[in-house]
Write a structure and sequence with these properties.
By secondary structure, this protein is of the alpha+beta class. The chain folds into two domains: about 150 residues, START domain (Alpha-D-Glucose-1,6-Bisphosphate, Chain A, domain 4, 2-Layer Sandwich); about 140 residues, START domain (Alpha-D-Glucose-1,6-Bisphosphate, Chain A, domain 4, 2-Layer Sandwich). It has seven helices and 15 strands. The strands form two sheets. Strands 1-2-8-7-6-5-4-3 form an eight-stranded antiparallel β-sheet. Strand 1 and strand 2 form a beta hairpin. It is elongated and about 65 Å long. The N terminus is likely disordered.
């Protein structure tokens, strides 16, 4: 893992003698995780919310998050005793696992501080994935090069840790997105298919809205009970769900998760992602077969949807 950055240009007099500052910063990170996990950690709002804060002293509040070409992300950077920093990001290009391009405008107390064009190039390595981020920066209110250098370097360090504990599962279902969404976000339907083969759900409370929750037990084929609690953070109809996984009702968090739905030619690609709290929890989950069990769950979803269509 390494990072490098360079200042390109000088401080020049702009219109009416106002100084303008330009810099090109380049950062590289190698990640011991599949390229798909790195890409989703970079783009999925649930994952971005985990790694975005450069230090523990900074809190990031997401006001909007729409990761698609033409979509934007708006967040507030909060530090105790200081005015909030507003960041607006707009996605200009998204080529999965290859490249993303976005603009970024930073302001404070309604004064624009900087504008930047951010390009991220992704590739595979022998150990996993690599991302090279190029920031073409224009500082407006003051010279922001050092702040960008520090902020991006710290954020990308966080990204590495998140990508290395991110699990991504996908399945293409031969059904329209509306039918798949209805099976996932219907309180009667969801418990019927959720969980690996041989498991059943016993629901205590279910409210599938942003701010809602699902408190339930997973019951294994041997009768063993696994308490679960899902807290729904975001629901974008037929597009994306963001939720938090707790170990039992009001228990400790063990993952931030999301599900996204994309339709092409009448078929729906379902992506299920999870960022585990720690690398140890991620390794434990892999060890007990979470990937295989998760794929079984998506297989049950497919069978349920197709049965509903036929029935």
């Amino acid at each position: 893992m390494n990072a490098n950055s360079n200042f390109d240009g000088t401080i020049n007099a702009g219109p009416e003698g106002k100084e303008s500052r330009f810099a090109t910063l380049t950062f590289q990170r190698d990640v011991a995780a599949p390229l798909s996990a790195l890409w989703h950690a970079w783009t999925a709002p649930a994952a971005r919310a985990v790694w975005a804060a450069p230090t523990p002293a900074v809190a990031i509040e997401f006001l909007e998050a729409d990761t698609r070409v033409g979509g934007r992300e708006v967040s507030l950077c909060k530090v105790e005793g200081q005015p909030d920093i507003r960041c607006e990001l707009g996605w200009l290009e998204l080529q999965p696992q290859l490249c993303s391009v976005n603009y970024e405008v930073v302001s404070c107390e309604q004064v624009t501080q900087s504008a930047a064009l951010v390009t991220a190039d992704f590739s595979e390595t022998d150990q996993g994935g690599r991302v090279i981020v190029t920031v073409q920066l224009s500082s407006l209110a003051k010279d922001m090069e050092a702040d960008y250098r520090q902020g991006f370097s710290a954020g990308l360090d966080n990204l590495v840790g998140v990508a290395e504990r991110t699990m991504v599962l996908q399945r293409v279902i031969k059904a329209p997105r509306g039918r798949v969404w209805a099976a996932w976000m219907n309180s009667d339907a969801l418990p019927q298919w959720w969980g690996p083969d041989g498991f059943s759900c016993r629901t205590k409370r279910i409210d599938l809205r942003a701010g809602g929750e699902w408190v339930f037990d997973m019951v294994g084929p041997d009768g063993k009970v696994y308490p679960n609690h899902h807290l729904y953070v975001e629901v974008r109809p037929e597009e994306r769900i963001g939720y938090t996984l707790l170990w039992g009702e009001n228990g400790p968090k063990h993952a931030d998760a999301w599900a996204s739905f994309e339709e092409h030619d009448g078929m729906t690609t379902v992506t299920l992602g999870m960022v585990f709290n720690t690398a140890a929890e991620f390794q434990d989950a892999k060890g007990f077969g979470a990937v295989e069990l998760g794929l079984q769950t998506l297989g049950k979803l497919e069978r349920f949807v197709l049965a509903q269509i036929k029935g």
